[in-house]
Amino acid sequence: MKKAADPQNILLIKMLGIGDVVWTTPLLSNLRQGFPHARISFLCRSFCTPVLANNPELDEVISFDPGSLIDQLNFIRGLRRRKFDLVIDLFGSPRSALLSLASGARTRIGFDFGYRRWFYNRVLSAKEANQGHEVEFHLYVLQTLGLLVKSRELVFKLSPEETSFKDRWWGEWGIKAGEKVVGLVATSGSVCRRWPEQSFSVLAQRLSSLKNIRVMVFWGLKSELESAQRIAKGSEEKVLIIPKTSLGQMAALLAGCDLVIGNNCGPVQIATAFKVPVINFQGPTNPRGQGPWGVPHIILRNEGLPCLECNKNSCPDPRCMTGISVEQTMEAFKTMMAGKIE
Question: Is the backbone of residue 92 left (phi > 0), alpha (psi -120 to 50) or beta?
Fold first, then answer.
């Protein structure tokens, strides 16, 4: 039964990236349990919308891409027509703060990031919220709504077509029962956050030489395909390169892996939503706040560097990543797969 004080029309904003949107899904589950009769919408950039396309807790996913001034004004008019009574800005950028205000919502919740705090009428302390993983940061919002945390599970729902896509390619590749599939994710938003391509290549050769291990290299952009081809070079018969996929199709392939090894990026976080164990290369980012969530995992870092967790997107000498050895990674692989391989 609806209560008059409960919000009836809720909008959440998290513009990007893919992994960050995955990390909002426990909050969505709790909001739906707390406000079962509310209409819940989610606003993000278009390339992130597939993360939420089949999410059962949402009534609408609103795609935003910057365009002309006229386009943006029309977008704001569309938001206002939806008559939201509660907006929760999880992003805190100038644009998301402005959209929160422009929505016309009676209650606007956001964090005290600089001047953006003035765009909300219920301001939360980012320092108090930031005591652990980004998932917990999002869940902090529940306190101000008087809701309890009942779920901390990530959610990524596949469509039947996406599941069939995975099954078809498993058949094409001849992956047999008993074989373990190891996914390699060499991508990342910035070069300095990537484990070296040559290291991935050596790792692919080492792994593919093992009995009952199939290695699968993931990519998204054309430049990443070229990198995947270089990683697989010399081991093409044993190292699989995924075909061109949608994000949902890639998610289905990730869900079929027994282990994923990769940089701190969206596909790795998607894998964790399917409870796939992860070996995660970290350097510029803080694994406590932005590492794998809810799955067995090993973080590999070049420990001892004073510049770890600098959060930079560019670096002339990313020793935090180049200093992680293939040998360390193979040891982590053996630990994660103990008892699962001969």
Answer: left
* 20 alpha-carbon distance from chain centroid: 5
Q: How far apart are CA 247 and CA 230, in angstroms?
A: 22
Reading the block at residue 79, the tokens are 């938001």
* Percent above pLDDT 90 for the chain: 85
Place of tokens 């291990």: 213
- The model's pLDDT over 30-55, given as tens digits with 9 standing for 90+, comes to 999 999 999 999 999 999 999 999 99
What's the whole-model pTM score?
0.94
Q: Domains in the chain, ordered, with CATH?
A: 9-144 (3.40.50.2000), 160-336 (3.40.50.2000)
The residue written with tokens 């074989």 in the block is: 179
What is the SS3 assignment for 213? strand
Q: Tokens standing for 201?
A: 């290549």
Tokens 């070049």 appear where?
Answer: 302
Each residue's pLDDT tens digit, 197-229: 999 999 999 999 999 999 999 999 888 999 999
Asked if residue 154 lies in contact with residue 26, where contact means CB atoms within 8 angstroms, the answer is yes
Closest CA to 109 of 138, 76, 67: 138
| Cα 63 to Cα 42, 44, 46, 48, 68, distances in angstroms | 8, 6, 5, 8, 15
The single-letter code of the amino acid at 18 is I
Q: pLDDT tens across 261-310, in order?
A: 999 999 999 999 999 999 999 999 999 999 999 999 999 999 989 999 89
Between 332 and 313, the higher pLDDT residue: 332
In terms of Cβ atoms closer than 10 Å to its own Cβ (0-12, 13-18, 19+), residue 203 is buried
Among residues 213, 226, 202, 141, the alpha carbon closest in space to that of 175 is found at: 213
Instruction: Record the tokens describing residue 289, joined without a space.
Output: 């706040």
